[in-house]
Write a structure and sequence with these properties.
This protein has 348 residues and is α/β, with parallel strands linked by helices. It is 27% helix and 19% strand. Strands 1, 2, 3, 4, 5, 12 and 13 form a 7-stranded mixed sheet that branches. It has a 6-stranded parallel sheet with strand order 8-7-6-9-10-11, with helices on both faces. The mean pLDDT is 97. The structure holds nicotinamide-adenine-dinucleotide and zinc ion. Residues 172-272 form the Alcohol dehydrogenase-like C-terminal domain.
Length: 348
């Protein structure tokens, strides 16, 4: 990111590492819709010559002298979120918010990211997880942000076993939320979206009903499909500033509206007063940033290893050179209808 609205290449020294850190080279990298908010909407403010990229699998090339478990040559899942595990927020159970709101989100926010020949990871022993041999770097890179975020959306939604869920937005994050909701025991899962390529994966990941927000008001369609009741949980994984209107209208008493969407624009986000029971409808709005850290990555890898989910379904475009990152990022910005997630693969 050269500045708001402009991307390009920049020449930098190989970064140095602290005693708990690791230096890595990427084996697979994916751009994220969050990069699009950051660069083209200026969502987190101005950044100059910041290296983007927070979704990577890497190979360790150097470790600091206090690193015990991670070794040179290890192939590792690098979480998008790399908390400071000793911080107060982490100790209170909110590791993604260490130091400041969203403070666990370092890469491509206030630290250079992984779209580079080399990048670093803080607290390597606590943040990096060994990539199991049965998982390719390309598949692995789908876990570090997309699965972790989407699954968190389902975890935060408090879905009753056999309950109903609506997932608003079925890009890679929403699709991961659908799989997460299925794994959490949802009975009925509404996928709200239109792109045929996403609809297909939504069904494979567990959606039982497909609703197009282009065919009418989402809340009305969900109410109609549930005998006027609404669903037990709503996961918001896309849409603009008005999306919480659809979410609250789809919910019923006791629902959690679990937001994982990144609101890139506008000062305020509207909540619909009447469907929210004038603030008294027992409909909670829960927010969260992708969980990071070693244990989380190991758990996500288990889902692949033991056959409970296939991350490769999210990958629609594959590239094989660092130079292709620019095209991959622009794909993420332009979102052609056949795109879910592009990945740049530099090692196998
Ligand atoms: P995406 O753009 O591929 O998917 C979102 C989809 O929502 C798009 O297909 C869009 O057409 C659709 N949409 C637009 N309006 C809609 C509406 N009214 N109802 C239903 N769908 C609608 O994006 P993605 O890569 O899947 O990411 C989703 C969001 O999650 C982004 O905002 C991203 O920045 C954010 N994100 C958050 C975290 C986190 O930690 N919370 C992590 C990663 C990404
Ligand atoms: Zn991201």
């Amino acid at each position: 990111m050269k500045k708001i609205g402009e991307i390009g290449w920049v020449e930098k020294d190989i970064p140095s590492i602290g005693p708990q850190d690791a230096l890595l080279k990427p084996l697979a990298i994916a751009p994220c819709t969050s990069d699009v908010h950051t660069v083209w909407e200026g969502a987190i403010g101005e950044r100059h010559d910041l290296i983007l990229g927070h979704e990577a699998v890497g190979e360790v090339v150097e470790v600091g002298n206090l690193v015990k478990n991670i070794k040179v040559g290890d192939r590792v899942l690098v979480p998008a979120i790399t908390p400071d595990w000793g911080s107060d927020a982490a100790q209170r159970g909110f590791s993604s918010q260490t130091g400041a709101p969203l403070g666990g989100w370092k890469y491509s926010n206030y630290k250079d990211g992984s779209m580079a020949e080399y990048f670093t990871c803080n607290e390597a022993d606590f943040n990096l997880a060994i990539l199991p041999e049965n998982i390719s770097p390309a598949d692995g890179v789908m876990l570090v942000d997309m699965w972790s975020t989407g699954f968190m959306g389902a975890e935060n939604a408090n879905i009753p076993l056999g309950g109903s869920v609506a997932v608003l937005g079925i890009g890679a994050v929403g699709l991961s939320a659908i799989l997460g909701a299925k794994l959490q025991g949802a009975g009925r899962i509404f996928a709200v979206g239109t792109r045929p390529v996403s609809v297909e994966v939504a069904k494979e990941y567990g959606a039982t009903d497909i609703i197009s927000y282009k065919d009418g008001d989402t809340g009305d369609q969900i109410k109609e499909a549930t005998d006027g009741e609404g669903v037990d949980a709503v996961i918001v994984a896309g849409g603009g500033s008005d999306i919480l209107i659809d979410a609250v209208k789809s919910a019923r008493a006791g629902s959690v509206v679990s937001n994982i969407n990144y609101f890139g624009e506008g000062e305020n986000i509207p909540i619909p007063r009447t469907p929210w029971g004038f603030g008294m409808a027992d409909i909670d709005i829960h927010t969260g940033l992708c969980p990071g850290g070693r244990t989380r990555m190991e758990q996500l890898a288990n889902i692949v290893t033991y056959g409970r989910g296939d991350p490769s379904k999210l990958i629609t475009h594959r590239f094989d050179a660092l130079e292709d990152l620019e095209e991959a990022l622009l794909l993420m910005k332009d979102k052609p209808r056949n795109l879910i997630k592009p990945v740049v693969i530099l090692g196998d």
